[in-house]
Structures are given as structure tokens and as C-alpha cells.
Amino acid sequence: MTEYKIEINLSSSRKQKPSFDSLEFGKNFTDHMFIVDYTRGIGWHDPRIVPYQPLTLDPACMVFHYGQTVFEGLKAYLTQEEEVLLFRPEKNMERLNRSNDRLCIPQIDEDLALSALKQLINVDREWIPNAPGTSLYIRPFVIATEPYLGVAPSGRYKFIIILSPVGAYYKEGINPVKIAVERQYVRAAIGGTGNAKTAGNYAGSLKAQEVAEKAGYSQVLWLDSKENHYIEEVGSMNIFFKINGEVVTPALNGSILEGVTRDSIIQLLKHWNVPVTERKISIDEIYQAQKDGILEEVFGTGTAAVISPVGEFFWQNEKLVVNGGKTGELSKKLYDTLTGIQLGTVPDPFGWTVKV
Ligand code: COI
């Protein structure tokens, strides 16, 4: 891969690192960040690694008013041999450009983005945590920076990458979470931006999330916007059900986020000859499967969430317990295998990991 010329301006001072044994998700940031600017008529220019710092932006920047912004999430892992591995980073860069396309943001050179990411990680290598269940979360994002109040694509952008040493996303760690099926609000509609990783999808989800949290649930399970009947995804992850030996997950339909972990789990299950199907799944079917005692496991998948077993879901005033509220055998095997591949302790037959 081409080593792109990226200017590096190292910080003269270093921040105190948090204890890697008690990391929360997304609260600590490393010493440096990557930035590249876009100007209409010029293209992307001035790629640079600079000390992590606040941005100074015009209050009229279009991102503040019309939400023209996209983001990604991926992770770097420190192996026992002190090597640094990324997990399928090219998939994130491809998805970033698909999101860019949906939000009328210019395409980014994926090789430049990957080269910049590797150089940034090398600069902040000491921030990669090594405690069990930890990793370096990577947040690439693009914001529209032209000061203009007309509704139109911006003529200026910044593509930025920041890094955050993290522990588990949920306070439950790898223990089962509880989710509530959402009936009043919807996350996304076909033809909308549901399959793009853009801030508005997440801002629009907060209300339902807040209500669910007050009732003791970690996340909401979204249903489709048209019939309010078919399962789509959970707040920060895709969802899988094991029913009578078969694993099913909602088929991608334009309003569901195309998760990299989702795809990896489907490939792993196929590799193990576990029957797995992507199709429409109604909430009634899941309800009935639970009543019939054939809903064996439910788990979510995502970069931040990894594999997150679901021990209970709330639907129409009923608490439906899955697998006695415990982590299922398949969820555990998937978690161990996926994190093993990511950490280089389990063979990677798919060639998913990339050395930094
Ligand atoms: C991720 O899993 O990386 C995500 O982007 C979810 C995020 C909203 C925490």
C-alpha cells in the first residue's frame, strides 16, 4: 500500500493515561488526531497528524445546522506479541464512503484514510490498552465546515480520526443486556438514511432510548417504520436470534446498518455449518418462539458492543426471558472466536486482521 505523505506535528506534552483496568467506553482520548481538509475545486488537501485539541469552527458551519456528517467505528488490538491488529478496516472505509455518498459528502481516498490511521496509531501506540476486554476504539468522522445557512451540500469538510482506549460498551460487560421493543418511535424508513452512519439517526433514537433506560432497559429494539412489525436493529448493534437450531437475522433492506461484525458473524456461522438466514423477522414470530420454548438465544453484534447476549426483552407489557437470562453457548463461542481472531490468539481463516 502507498505510504501517503502526512505531515506529523507531535505534541510537546503527553496526557496522563487512564488505568487500563477500569476503562469506560468513549471517555478518554489519545494525544494526537488526524485531520484532512476538503475544499470544493481543490479536493482533499493537507493531511496531517496534530496534537489532540479542540476545533475552532465558524458557528455557521453547515454541520451544526443541517447535520451533514458521517462517522465510523473500528478497533485496534494489542496482541500478546505486542503487535497491533486492525479488524477488517477496509470494510469501515468502504462504508464511510457509502455514507458519504448518501450525505452528498465527497468520496475519501480509502487508501489514504487507512494509511493515515496506521500512522496515527503508531504515533499513539502506547495508548492501546492490554487489559482483557479492552481495545483502542477508532472514530473516523467527517463534518461539513462551510459557513452557510442555505440547505445544500457544503463546499468544505474536515475528515478527522480520533482514538479512544475503551472497555466494554455496556455496563453489563459481556453479561446479557435487557432490551425493550420500541412501539412509538421509529429509527429509520426505507429510502431514508438508516443504512448510513450519520449522526441524525442516533440523535433521533435518543428519546426512545431515554424512555427505555428509565424502565431499566439498556437499549431499544427497533421495528420497521411502515408496518411497525418487522425487526430492524438495536440502538448500537445488529440483532440475531437462534430459534430451534437455526440462526436468523433481519435481511438488509436499506434502513438497517450494514454492520461489519454482523457480516463477520454470518461468515463464521457458515464456516461452522450452523444454519444462518437473513430474512424478514416479525416481532410476533419472536414472541411466539419464546412462548413455544424454541427461542434459544438472542445476541447483538457491533464494533462497540462486540457480541452482546440479550437476556430479556420487553414487548407489550411482558418481560420475555431468553435462555434463563444467561449467556447462550453459541453467543459465548462467537464472542470467544471473534475476539480471539481480533487479538491474534485464534487462527484467522478469513484473513480479516491487518497488521499496523
Ligand atoms: C460502533 O459499534 O462502532 C458504533 O458506531 C456504535 C456506536 C453508536 C457506539
From TrEMBL:
PANTHER family assigned to the protein according to its UniProt record, in alphabetical order: BRANCHED-CHAIN-AMINO-ACID AMINOTRANSFERASE, SUBGROUP IIII AMINOTRANSFERASE
Pathway the protein takes part in: Amino-acid biosynthesis; L-valine biosynthesis; L-valine from pyruvate: step 4/4; Amino-acid biosynthesis; L-leucine biosynthesis; L-leucine from 3-methyl-2-oxobutanoate: step 4/4; Amino-acid biosynthesis; L-isoleucine biosynthesis; L-isoleucine from 2-oxobutanoate: step 4/4
Keyword Cell membrane: no
Protein name as it appears in the record: Branched-chain-amino-acid aminotransferase
GO MF terms, alphabetically ordered: L-isoleucine-2-oxoglutarate transaminase activity; L-leucine-2-oxoglutarate transaminase activity; L-valine-2-oxoglutarate transaminase activity
Reactions that this protein is recorded to catalyse: L-leucine + 2-oxoglutarate = 4-methyl-2-oxopentanoate + L-glutamate; L-isoleucine + 2-oxoglutarate = (S)-3-methyl-2-oxopentanoate + L-glutamate; L-valine + 2-oxoglutarate = 3-methyl-2-oxobutanoate + L-glutamate
Annotated family: Belongs to the class-IV pyridoxal-phosphate-dependent aminotransferase family.
Swiss-Prot/TrEMBL GO biological process terms: isoleucine biosynthetic process; L-leucine biosynthetic process; L-valine biosynthetic process
Protein EC: 2.6.1.42
Sites bearing N6-(pyridoxal phosphate)lysine, chain numbering: 197
A matching Pfam family: Aminotran_4
Signal peptide per UniProt: none
Record InterPro entries: Aminotrans_IV, Aminotrans_IV_CS, Aminotransferase-like, B_amino_transII, BCAT-like_C, BCAT-like_N, BCAT_family
Domain of life: Bacteria
Cofactor: pyridoxal 5'-phosphate
Catalytic EC class: transferase
Keywords attached to this entry: Amino-acid biosynthesis, Aminotransferase, Branched-chain amino acid biosynthesis, Pyridoxal phosphate, Transferase
Annotated NCBIfam families: ilvE_II (TIGR01123), PRK13357.1 (NF009897)
